[in-house]
Specification:
With about 325 residues, this protein is α/β, with parallel strands linked by helices. It contains 12 helices and 10 strands. Strands 5-4-6-3-7-8-9-10 form an 8-stranded mixed beta sheet, with helices on both faces. It has a two-stranded antiparallel sheet with strand order 1-2. It is elongated and about 70 Å long. The structure holds guanosine-5'-diphosphate and magnesium ion (MG).
């Protein structure tokens, strides 16, 4: 059976499919701009730089690739297939570059292992929680989910659907409840302990309909859980939407400053040509990418594997 790093054949094929748009955006454009063999001159370098930036690989990695190409030009002025050369340089940088964060490791599991999921509205928090719950449950863990996004009426319902799909328990404020998110988190943690759950996953709001500051509220949820179980939440995952490109880095800094982030989840890679942002994030932020989302199905969450990612990105 084919495997690369953490992924089996099924995961790899989902990853390849998920990266179609990004792959096409980089290599399709290079092929279109430089269809035949030629010398790597100023025009080629500018063109490649432009294309890499458009795929959101980021200024840092792009500059490194251009530097390496310039060096190659100095060593030889032979005509080359531009597509192949760029592939080789990307491969070299992404697989051996020391500036890129390695695969994220899960923290040491605690019982219950408390995972708090944060991020702005619409990035895919609730969907990711459903997928994550399913992943834990299929590996034999007992999972409880907490619906601490209490501001949107539809949020509970959506989470309920995911909890059912994943076959796990949901704790929510119930209809007409006071709906204080920190209180929901408190109740859920108590329920998780009482039910001997292995994992508690806490969903949170991405935007508030009150004057309460989102970051203050997230801090409060965190504090309440910490008081109940020292060390909880053991994992704080920030969910980022790949299609927002470089803004992901700003978002990560903001949430990181407020609540401390132990890992990143980058979603919607399948829907964007800007999947290069995974690499930009891996280089710019000192936080491991733990999971990537490559579709809307329950099994479309994958552990991030740098090697598999690069292979899928470069596949011809
Ligand atoms: N294509 C795709 N869509 C996703 C992915 N993750 C989430 N979504 C979609 O993004 C939308 C917002 O997701 P949701 O979980 O409600 O975001 P939340 O507001 O952060 O909780 C939904 O339509 C999801 O189906 C993904 O990896 N790929
Ligand atoms: Mg949500």
């Amino acid at each position: 059976v084919e495997t690369v790093g953490l992924l089996d054949a099924f995961g790899l094929s989902r990853l390849r499919d998920g990266l179609v748009k990004t792959r096409q955006s980089i290599f399709g454009k290079i092929q279109g701009a430089f269809p035949s063999k030629r010398r790597i001159d100023h025009e080629v370098l500018n063109g490649i730089e432009q294309i890499l930036l458009e795929a959101d690989i980021g200024v840092g990695i792009t500059a490194e690739i251009i530097e390496r190409l310039k060096k190659r030009v100095k060593e030889s002025d032979a005509e080359v297939d531009v597509n192949t050369i760029v592939r080789e340089e990307i491969q070299a940088i992404l697989t051996t570059g020391t500036n890129i964060v390695e695969n994220g490791k899960d923290p040491e599991p605690q019982t219950p292992h408390v995972v708090m999921v944060v991020g702005v509205n619409g990035v895919g928090k609730t969907t990711t929680i459903g997928k994550l719950a399913n992943m834990y449950r299929t590996s034999g863990k007992k999972v409880v989910i907490a619906a601490a996004d209490t501001f949107r009426a539809a949020a509970n319902e959506q989470l309920d659907i995911w909890a059912n799909r994943a076959g796990v328990d949901l704790i929510s404020a119930g209809s007409g409840g006071s709906a204080d998110p920190a209180a929901v988190a408190f109740d859920a943690l108590r329920a998780a302990v009482a039910r001997h759950a292995d994992v508690l996953i806490v969903d949170t709001a991405g935007r508030l309909h009150t004057k309460v500051n989102l970051m203050e509220e997230l801090k409060k949820i965190k504090r309440v859980m910490q008081k109940q179980i020292p060390g909880a939440p053991h994992d704080v995952l920030l969910v980022l939407d790949a299609s927002i490109g470089q803004n992901a880095i700003q978002q990560a800094r903001r949430f990181g400053d407020a609540v401390g982030i132990t890992g990143l989840v980058i979603t919607k890679l399948d829907g964007t040509a800007r999947g290069g942002v995974v690499l930009a994030v891996a280089r710019e932020l000192n936080v491991p990418i733990r999971y990537i989302g490559v579709g809307e199905r329950i099994d479309d969450l994958q552990p991030f594997d740098r090697k598999a990612f690069v292979e899928a990105l470069l596949e011809s």
